[in-house]
Amino acid sequence: MNLRSLGALAISMALAACATPSSQQTVAPLPVATPTPLTTPTVRPTPTPTPMPAVVVEPTLSPAPISTAKPLTVQEARALLNQLLPAKMPERAGWSADILDAFTALKLPYTAAYFCAAAATIEQESSWQGDPTVPGLPKIVWRAIGDRAAKYHIPLIAVQTALLKKSPTGQSYKARIDTLRTEREMNALFEDLADEAENLNLPLNMKNPIRTGGPMQVSVEFAQGHVKAWPYPYAMKGSVRSEVFTRRGGTYFGLAILLQYPAPYTDMVYRFADYNAGRYASRNTAFQQLVSKLTGQALEQDGDLLRYSNGAPTGTSSTQTALYRLAKQLAMSNEAILRDLKLEKLSGFGQTELYKKTYALAEKNGQTFPRAALPQIDLKSPKITRKLTTEWFAKRVLWRYETCMARR
What we know:
Shape: globular
Radius of gyration: 23 Å
Order of helices and strands: HHHHHHHHEEHHHHHEEHHHHEEH
Helix content: 40-55%
């Protein structure tokens, strides 16, 4: 194997190993909705499990408690947002403009609750850095390269020599790895490697493995799906992927994930959990807990009611098996149960025969059970050095949200 091939093999594997698990990540294939203006919302206030689903833009919102007062004008909204953002933060005017522009383009209501939800999530994900740094990123990349090279009995020095080839920036690929600071730089590095696949003897069909990035750690897959369902408001200088790694684009797509869907919750913490674990993960986790109680079967509390492979349901999940055991009590066939389970990533699952009958069965003696619960998911990533969970993430963002709301 020549040096160019060694470099190709090592870099592709290393970058795949370092791809950041995305926030907002439970995915199933979903239909893409036609852009529809959002109606006035009803009252109510992201290594995660699996990748993000095809985008669904649902035209009804249910935010934190808001008044029935006349909607704010853009000028009034700008003043409110200015009041709510931290007094001391980098590039305050730029962030304010990007947030307000995203709200306007996504047709999100201008409310303190929504503004604070946005601010809290951005602060948690990037500490108001438009291109957040990743401490020790070169070491993470080289460690992954070394581990992979060792499996193929390739000396690391041979790989490093292969990567001395000059890249389009004028630096060698090795030098760029040695000085990596941010995911945006890492994404640009891999894009250059992909463009030079033939010269570097890289597979021509190699895809960029970096799945998330930007100030809100947005799933690239989500962004690519969203522009098909909702018109992107800005002129793109490059690809959708490139937009994700900008402050403006990352904020826009992040707020779409966080707020542009009807969340059936009475507490904002569950929307934050959904951001990390996937839309409706909190509703689905409560449903899993209920099924576990009814059957006595221990179930994963991750908000995934089905098992997925490459975005498509596959095999039979433990939740599915447990529900089949309840089929007679629910007066439903296995086919009908599966039919409804396939809606688990949409708001409509809460109106299905399966959902209603399962709760009715549990509550027939007058008991009531929660409609939302925090998913129990361990977060794993080369960047994470201590035990973190979706519950930790949601509560941490909630604390920031409450701090923001106190500034009103």
